[in-house]
Amino acid sequence: MRWGVAGESSKRTTIPEGPQGPNPGSSLRSPCTSRPRIQPRADIRPERCCRDAGDRYRRGMATLEITKESLASTIDDNDIVLLDFWADWCGPCKNFAPVFEAASEAEPDIVFGKIDTEDQQELAAGFRITSIPTLMAFREGVLVFSQAGALPGPVLDDLISQVKGLDMEEVHAKVAEAQKAQAAQAAAEGAQPEA
Q1: Whole-angstrom Cα distance, residue 135 to residue 127?
Q2: DSSP-based three-state secondary structure for 141
Q3: What is the third-level CATH fold of 42-183?
Q4: Among the options 32, 49, 50, 90, which is catalytic?
Q5: Which residues pair with 147 in a beta bridge?
Q6: Of the four, 18, 64, 69, 156, which is 20 to 30 A from 124 by CA?
Q7: What is the tens place of the pLDDT at every residue in 161-185?
């Protein structure tokens, strides 16, 4: 596929500081606003179909590009979603990309999304991504897997099988218990008199 260069450079936001400040050990690179964004040229796109957040099958990439705007609907509207946090400068991310792509073609009932940590720094910060690639799996809107590092194809296939085989009634019950325990703990801490 040939790629064209867009005329304007993209504006990027910095990762917001959390309560503990910025993450000093992060492997995420600082944004580069002087580099032009690379985008596929519409006049020479290959004839193949793939998934897109608005229309599941369109020409172009075989995985979804997930943004801050499309994340919630992608997770809420699909049973299983696998997210790959990556960056163009990351060697292991480039090595994992064909494995992720092959899995997306083999599993059409699962949504495979890629989140570029350079362009979607708010999402990367929100998910506390400190190493890339990071793979996350959601089932029925619940985060059921999160791990940094590139997975070999057979391991990714096994992970997909495990995610498909989860007893989601049990998972939802455990999530409800955890939320109830957190609410009780927060209420107990709020009821304690300050010294």
Answers
A1: 11
A2: coil
A3: Glutaredoxin (3.40.30)
A4: 90
A5: 135
A6: 156
A7: 999 999 999 999 999 999 999 999 9
